[in-house]
Amino acid sequence: MLDLTDENIIHTYEIVLNELEHYANEMLQKPRIILGTKLDLPGTKDVLEQFRNENRDEIVIGVSSFSSEGLEEVKASFYTMVQSHARGGNTGVSDYTEPEDAP
């Protein structure tokens, strides 16, 4: 989860990846969904799009706990990831498709 109001969101994400590399390297090899939080605040949709453009190999979803925006997409994305894993896929971004049958 990344705070979309963080002025240095790219740097913050790099710090998270660096920490994973040093303390839980195996986690870097696993598929992940990155959540950008506080999507209801002004300017965060632009930050989300910029972050997505700079991280095209990642699944990035904007969410707001205040307005519930993006929460259905999070549920559907996790559902798709679990289904892909159950079918033997690597559940990475290359396997990701927009969920059609998610609950």
Describe the structure.
This protein is mainly alpha-helical and 103 residues long. The protein has one domain. Helix content is 45%, strand content 11%. It has a 3-stranded parallel beta sheet, with helices on both faces. The chain is globular, with a radius of gyration of 14 Å. The mean pLDDT is 87.
> What is the beta-strand fraction?
5-15%
Helix-strand sequence:
EHHEHEH
Low-confidence stretches: none
Radius of gyration: 14 Å
Number of domains: 1
Query: What separation lies between the terminal Cα atoms?
Result: 23 Å
Q: Oligomeric form of this entry?
A: single chain
Largest sheet: 3 strands, parallel
Helix content: 40-55%
* Global shape: globular
Can you list the strand order of the major beta sheet?
A: 1-2-3
Structural class: mainly alpha
Number of strands: 3
State the helix count.
4
Mean pLDDT: 87
Outline the secondary-structure elements.
Elements: E1 2-3, H1 9-23, H2 25-28, E2 33-37, H3 44-54, E3 59-62, H4 71-86
Parallel strand pairs: 1-2, 2-3
What key phrases describe this protein's structure?
3 strands; 103 residues; 4 helices; 11% strand; three-stranded parallel beta sheet; mainly alpha; single chain
